[in-house]
Every structure is written in structure tokens, then in C-alpha cells.
Amino acid sequence: MSAWHVDDDALARWVDGTETFARAASSEAHLLVCAPCRTRVAAAVRAQPSRGERAELPEFEAVWGNVRDVIELPRVSAFERLLRRVGLPPADARLVTLAPSFRAPWLAGILLVLAFVVVAAQFGPGRGQAIFLMVAPLLPCLAVALSYDPSIEPALETELATPYPALRLVLLRSLAVLGIGLPAAAAASPFLPGNVSYLWLLPSLGFVGCVLAASTWTTPLSAAAGISVAWFLIVVGTALAGSAHAVLRPAYLGGYLTLAAASVVVLLARHRHLRQPQEGGGWV
Amino acid sequence: MTDVGSDATLLAGVGAGDLGALRELYDRHAPWLSVRLARRCNDREAVADALQDTFVAVWRKPTGFHGDGEVAAWIWGIAVRRLVSRLRGRRDVIVSAEPPEPASVPAAEEQVLVAVEYGDVGQAMARLSPQMRAVIQVVVLDGLTAKEAARLLHIPESTVKTRLSRAKAQLRATLAEGVV
User: Fold this and answer.
1) DSSP letters for A20-57
2) Digit-coded pLDDT (tens) for A140-150
3) pTM of the model
4) Phi then psi for A225, rounded to 5 degrees?
5) Contact assignment for B126 to A21 by CB distance below 8 Å
6) B30, B44, B97 member nearest A56 (Cβ)
């Protein structure tokens, strides 16, 4: 520590902002290496009765409060930053990130179901194919339904309470869920015996649309349940009549596409009826 | 001041997630930092924002200090750069390179002291034009790069370099011929 210190007058002038250039530079260079002089500056700044003369000095407690606020906020995740980078507004990015498909238990659940299907399929090509065709197309629509039924998805309650277009919210979340669910299901299909084409994606698209459209009347979960039962019956019926693969006949594929398109039309026409959660649970 | 350790020790505490250590660093350094920042920029909000950014940065990356030299100098390096980035694109803020002249003529005794303390360099500095002094200040004294200085002073980078070399040449000449 040097024996030289900034004298009281120079220190006061520096704090007041009235010091000349060369002397200020000298004081500043000294302050970088001298803790006692820094402490004197702190005392001088705090001792100033009024900040009127030095309006440039910030309110230290207020700034400290802001520092705390910033560092105590959760850091934005890498995935969310990526979404923002590709142009999604911050609010949308947050919603997509909050979609349950990105939480580990959810992802694990989807993968577990698929693993069961693949294992079951090893017991016989015909039956395995039927099981896969029964489950895989339903997976996305169930995922979407679960992801925005407030009785299951607690995060949604606060989201829907915010002044945010419900349609936009539902579509964004569905996209987010599909972004995980579809590739996962698609990745599983090569492990199936026999030739299951990716055409099953078409009915699943139709079902997702159906769930969204139907949720303008009822809850997404009941819609998904109804669709599941109907699809089970159809697949079992076709399997009994011959091969389950028949559900992917070209004649039917047009039907699935029509279902998807019609759902979109219905959803757009009736998006004002998208269910809003009531206070204290339940649906309006 | 209760001595709870050196700045470097506190910084290690910040690295371990100790908010109290950050608070202590803040109490020690925020006053002089803000005075020094306020000498560069007359906008109170910008100074407050730069101060806030600085301590957030210290909290997030205390490992940026490599243990050599003064913690204060390291923090100042962060602070002046945060000020630059906070002022990016703002032309309404006057970057004050020219402190107001003392209201009264300093007493003869004081002038002697000045001469003893700072000698010819201080006088030579005083002879520089405000524009050149501003460049000397941000590049030589504050340690900014020419690019950062250009952003802070709202002048092209090439102008920063030109003014810097002219200022140095002028200082050299003034010192060589001697100042009365």
C-alpha cells in the first residue's frame, strides 16, 4: 500500500465532479489500487446531504435491489434462447418451453409407451403391427389433450388467465407437443417387424385436429378419449377382418386428411369457444 | 468498515453463491464506480444501469478475475464496458470529457502543490483540446479499445485513432518544449 493518498480536498472535488482532468486521472488511477481511499470515497458519497449537485449518482439501494432481482430470476434456458433466436417472441418462447412435453417425466412417458409397443410387436408381426397402429396415431392427440387440460396441467391455469389469445396458446402448445411426440413415435417405427409405413402420421394429424376442434365444445380430454375408443374399434375391426394395415389404405388416407382440414376450419370458426378454465377449477 | 476479507476472498465467496459477499463488494465498490462512471456520462439512468449490469456480471462470472492485479481494476474494466454497451445507439447522452472548471482561481499555494504533484504532464494535458482529452481519457486511462471508445464518444474508430496519435504527439511536443 502506498504512503501517498488522495488528499481530502481533491477527493471531495473528484466526488463532486469539479476536479480537473489531470488530477482526476491521477485520483482515479490511485483509487484502483487503494482500498482505504475507496472507502473514503464511499463515505464522502454517503455523507453528501443532498444529491442535488450530483444528480448523476444513482440510488445505491435501488440499484442493489435491481441487481438482486436480476440474479434471482431463473436463467433463460438454452432451448428458450434458441427459440427466441429463430424469431419467436419471448412470451411465445416461454409458453413453448413450458409445454409439458419438454419436461423429463413427460418425455419418459412417451418413450416408455413406445418401448412397450415395440416389445409387444416382437410377439408376432401381425399382432405387433395392429398394436402399433392402434397406439401410435393416438399418441400425439393424447399428448396434446393432456397438455392443455387444466385438471392435469397446472401451469396452464395461470397461462390461460393471462390476456393471451387462447387459440394461439393452444396451437403453440400443440406444435410444441407434436415437435417431441411425433419424432419419438416415428423413430420407433423402424424397430417394428413388417413394413409399417409412415402413413400412420396422417390419421394422427387428423386426430390432433379433431381434439382441438372438439375442445370448442367439450374438454380436450373427453374428446381424445372419444377418438381413442373409436380408433380402437376401427383398428380391431380391420384386424379381425384381415390385416390391421388396411386402415392405411389409400382410400382412407384421403379421409384422414379431410378430417384434419375440417378440424382446422372448425377450430378457426369456433376459436372463441375455446374452453377457458374457471376460477377454482372446471371449465367455462 | 468491518473487514470480512479481501476483495479476492469476497470474489471467491461470490463464486460459491454467497449473496452477502456480493453485497459487501457492492458496498465497497459501487460508490467510487458510480462517481467515476458519472464523470464519463451525465445520464443518471445510464450510470445506474451500467452499475447494475456490472454487479450482475460479477455475480455470474466471478471467475473472470484471474487472481492477478486488483479486483477494483477488474471491476472497473467491466463497468466501463457495460456503460459503453448501455449507451450504444443513444445519442442523447452527453459523454462528459470536460469537467467543469473550478469556479474560483486556485490559490497560489495550491497551484504550487499542483505543479509539484502533477508537474508538466498535468499542464500539458490541460492544453489538449477537449476532443483529444476525451480520447486520451477513454483509451489511455479507462483502457477501452479504439472500437469501444468510438462507440462511447459517437465518433468513427478511425477518428479515435487519429486523435489519439495527435494527442500523444502534442503531449510529447509540449513536454519537450517545456511548459512555463
Assistant:
1) -HHHHHHHHHHHHH-HHHHHHHHHHHHH-S--STTTTS
2) 777 777 766 65
3) 0.55
4) -65, -45
5) yes
6) B44
